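Example 3.2
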Amino acid sequence: MHVESVAWISERKDVLYAFFYFSSLISYILYCSGEKLRKRYFVISFLLFLLAVFSKVMAVTLPVILLYIDFCLKRKFCSRIIFEKIPFFVISLSFGFFQLAQGLAGKWQMNMVDFFLEKILLSAYAFNTYIYKLFFPFNLSCFYPYPQKINNSFSLEIYIAPLISFFVIYLIVKLGKTSKEILFGFLFYISTIFIVLIVPSIKFVVADRFTYVPFLGLFIIIGQGYNVLINKKPQLKYAAIVFLICVVSFFSFLTFQRCGVWKNSLTLWNDVLAKYPNLSIAYNNRGNYFVKEKQYNLAIDDFTASLRIDPTRARIYANRGGVYANLKKYDLALKDYNSGLALEENYFILNNRGNLYKAAGKYSLAIKDYTQALKMNPMLAKTYVNRGIVFYILKQYDLALKDFTSALRINSRFAKVYSYRSVVYKSSGAYQKALEDALHAKSLGYSIDQNYIRNLEARFK
């Protein structure tokens, strides 16, 4: 389940936040234990909590776990215990509400009753799935598609999920009455997984990486269950040890096998498609891999398959259009860009269509697309460069200089643009500035023809 958190570089934040999260809990326990320098441990715990939250927002659950620790350590409930948690809760609520607001953005167009009923069903489904995957980690995937409705209804397993969840909760709570360790483990799991259960997503409901810290709670329950079994039936001790060794060995083998899936994007999305052959995003992502490898025909096949499953995604039309452009099939590229823009006015597609118009000599249309893209996102340095090139071709040097300068304001180390601006300065007779830009481009590692520099220097002799 946790190969993703280690093998995928973007999810190394799971490992980082877990380190700070558990270190904060350990520091808090030392603070509660009455050790020397206990106040220092409290400060360290808070600082580690801050680092955990900045690593990943899932760490906002830590203040609640501190209350569970107080319960397990039998600390007397008083105003001091509440006040010492205030700094933790202030940070937690601030980050938590921000994350929740982001998750809810764009979801309010759905009827609120339907939205919350659906959220309850899917949260229960995810809650159950994570527990099931802990014991039966088969058919794992880096992407689990959002449950689809047929005739406006989910499958039966979604509707019975809350009943299963309530049964599991009832069972654990009943066991927890006999062992505070079991109760702590369950509360730890449900509290740390809660934030990803309530934050809405239209892309997925379940993700393996979300269990990196929460599973510790379930492991506490398993460990305590092992202790209870050995204490009640000591004759089973060696059999239980052999069983655990077999389980750990088997799961270690599965982990090793799973690492191979994360070798590269091709093996990863091949694995997803083997399990979900009608997943549009998987074909799109594998197509992107083929583009990087310059296997353009395979990329076109995947983008086409993706659009066959879901023809409403503008970005996939843009991706396929980009491949057609690389293959110099400009008519097909333009058709895809137009199809994408018909679905969504997207600055990425506008820039690419502008490039097509520029290559075809349709400069007024190119300028129109570039300008519209920049209205949508004024931080597109490459779009300024593209429009600047068109202005230079049209000998509108002032406008070209303005665009190249805007691009350099966004990225001051865009060496190629200094060389472009140098050419414009030279064309407009500003030889000193042309020389300065040429030399600056060269200092940034861009290859400048030495004869060009000599020509500019000769203007001053």
